[in-house]
């Protein structure tokens, strides 16, 4: 292929590569910032100009997972010597770890992280499964007023969601669903559903209906044909759609902040609240954010082939 | 095996009428070919029988039972399509097993194995069984597709242009194979095609569809020699029947506009003088010889080996004549031709209907 490139095409290619590199740098810069801050000593986190070369340490992560209080007086030499290595890091920073009896008090971060996981995974599963079935219906059957329905479904995305935040809050409070997992799951499912329907309809439209019809004639019910033939063909699309739904639910901030405060609070509103005792502890916040980014990054990385194929629609065709 | 009957079936898609009052009967064990152009309603007919569509009006009977309300699974028919008919991601074996594994059939795994082996042997695809379907050639794919139909014993085989996507040589080979298969199985086949050669060479009976109406049903011989109207006359034969506008004058055919005359040997019967007619004559029933009555210019010569197909211009009329390959003619030469008056088919000039069919 390269042999038949004209000089003009070569220049265009080079420019495209440069554009890709620049875009990637722009997108990766904040992530680099967070990742480095998460390993910085607290004193270096806010220096101007930023410190680029430093001795990485994991104190921010230790702080992230523990409950601490400010030391009011210096620690005894003996107590310091008896403390495990990680506790010394805390003591060095002028704080001590809270204990009840002998057991270390963990911070709320693991709980909030788990909340995020439960809510994002459940709402993604619900939205993708319901949305895929809906999309299949729209794709394969003559639905009266199909265009109007599809427009109606899409129209739920035409408003910035925050616009309905106050009424949503009042409704949730009225039915007692504030600060519940179910509350956020329903909200994120509803929010993602229209997106899934539209995206999956595109994918399913691309699957020739002859496959299912052959299965119907071969003695299968519509449902069996859907699960045996359509679903495996739509897997790529489902993976791509699933990743997007997961990211949206995982990262959602505004509603989580407003509708939850403890039991069902997700990580996004929790992390910035970790201002620490005294000054804002940016390294702990960065550590929380860094860990929070990992699941999505891993998930996306594992599914990257599906995502690429999923984004170039029609790739499922032979 | 089964007897299929469609009674006054009409199918509408919104404002469009795909089929109009279709009456069709396929006898048990018959190879029935539906011939028609794109959009004539062939595929719709097939889908109605398969149960993938429901008729707007009319009844569909399989072995005398009204199946209009049955789903495709209950009708026990097999379908072979032009393409997209194999399940992707499956191997050939899995494709062949698929219909037998349907819950409604409850086939033992021993028997599944046997049936798959039998079908693979008949179609000579045993060596492909463990291959993925996307690694098959077009001909192999269609063989597997047919295999998936014959692993079970369906009441009727429905085939929607199964050979159209194949290249010419393969098409010819599979044509023979399919016909042999049908005879071996003694099965009822409904075969849909737009290719008149397929229809003529395979069908026990042919039904010609034109814009949702069944124009004529008959054996290939009847369809070829006694077309019911000019549409059928144009649909079969390669090259198709010559159709010449003209009138009857004193028992002779006068072809307008630049007139030439030919005898009819009293074929005219009840036709009145001067009535506008269309004279139909097959290319092979034209003879080119020096003493013949009409002069024509050779416009084109196609050499087919055993024969030559000439395109003749006689006045404004364009005729095609099939002559022996030994006939010595060249383009732009003037020749004389005659027709075999026994073979001329008369059509009414206005309605296009053959006068032999009494209307």
From TrEMBL, chain A:
Using the record's annotation, list all stretches that form the ABC transmembrane type-1 domain: 113-303
The region annotated as signal peptide is none
Which PROSITE patterns does this chain map to?
ABC_TM1
Give the transmembrane region(s). Answer: 12-35, 113-137, 149-170, 182-204, 225-250, 282-303
> Where, subcellularly, is it found?
Cell membrane
Q: Does the keyword Membrane apply?
A: yes
Q: Which UniProt keywords apply?
A: Cell membrane, Membrane, Transmembrane, Transmembrane helix, Transport
Top-rank taxon, per record? Bacteria
Coiled coil, from the record:
none
PANTHER family in UniProt = ABC TRANSPORTER PERMEASE PROTEIN, MALTOSE TRANSPORT SYSTEM PERMEASE-RELATED
Q: Could you tell me what this protein is called?
A: Carbohydrate ABC transporter permease
TrEMBL record, chain B:
What the entry lists under CDD domains is as follows: ABC_MalK_N
- PANTHER family (alphabetical): MALTODEXTRIN IMPORT ATP-BINDING PROTEIN MSMX, TREHALOSE IMPORT ATP-BINDING PROTEIN SUGC
Question: In the record, what terms sit under GO molecular function?
Answer: ATP binding
The name of this protein is: ABC transporter ATP-binding protein
Domain ABC transporter residues, every copy: 4-236
Q: Which UniProt keywords apply?
A: ATP-binding, Cell membrane, Membrane, Nucleotide-binding, Translocase, Transport
Family, according to the entry, reads as follows:
Belongs to the ABC transporter superfamily.
Which InterPro entries does UniProt cross-reference here?
A: AAA+_ATPase, ABC_transporter-like_ATP-bd, ABC_transporter-like_CS, ABC_transpr_MalK-like, ABC_transpr_MalK/UgpC-like, Mo/tungstate-bd_C_term_dom, NA-bd_OB-fold, OB_MalK-like
SMART domains (UniProt xref): AAA
